[in-house]
């Protein structure tokens, strides 16, 4: 675990959230939080937490919120088992998630007394594959080089449809009105 110069151990904490019509409640499960050495700050779109608990453990996290909050009507509650942040929504609309997925991902890595945010490099899957990775079933879908155009067009054409047959009147029934 990373430690800061003051001997504090930076740890991850389990957190959860739920919402009502006009509130979002963020719960951080940090047992025995020390209120004198912890702080929670917010602006209209970012919730910043620094929670010290169990003497030397510290949870730091910036939550880039999905929606906008009214900071003046929001509050924090620290109880022995958790820290609960109740944020008042600026607009009474449902949030799809707690955090905005478009927000930059920033990891806090302390290397001195002050924290210096370091941007995480986004990892993208490697979609490029070599020809050796194509299975035989994929090759069956690829037309062979030596097929003629006529053979290809015949394989692509749909068979002709049969002409509709007349249905004798005794087998028909009128449609019922609903």
From TrEMBL:
Protein name from the UniProt record: CS domain-containing protein
Compositionally skewed regions (Acidic residues) per UniProt: 128-142
Top-rank taxon, per record: Eukaryota
InterPro entries: CHRD1, CS_dom, HSP20-like_chaperone
PROSITE patterns: CS
Span of domain CS: 10-99
SUPFAM superfamilies: HSP20-like chaperones (SSF49764)
Region annotated Disordered, chain positions: 97-178
């Amino acid at each position: 675990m990373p430690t800061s110069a003051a001997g504090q151990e930076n740890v991850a904490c389990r957190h959860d959230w739920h919402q009502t019509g006009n509130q979002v409640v963020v719960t951080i499960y940090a047992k025995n939080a020390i209120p004198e050495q912890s702080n929670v700050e917010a602006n209209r779109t970012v919730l910043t937490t620094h929670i010290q608990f169990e003497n030397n453990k510290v949870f730091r996290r910036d939550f880039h919120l999905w929606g906008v909050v009214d900071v003046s009507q929001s509050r924090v509650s620290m109880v022995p088992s958790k820290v609960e942040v109740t944020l008042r929504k600026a607009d009474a609309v449902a949030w799809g998630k707690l955090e905005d997925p478009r927000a930059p991902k920033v990891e806090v890595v302390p290397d001195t007394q002050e924290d210096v945010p370091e941007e995480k490099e986004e990892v993208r899957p490697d979609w490029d594959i070599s020809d050796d990775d194509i299975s035989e079933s994929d090759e069956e879908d690829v037309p062979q080089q030596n097929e003629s155009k006529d053979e290809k067009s015949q394989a692509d054409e749909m068979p002709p449809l049969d002409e509709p047959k007349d249905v004798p009147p005794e087998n028909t029934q009128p449609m019922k009105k609903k």
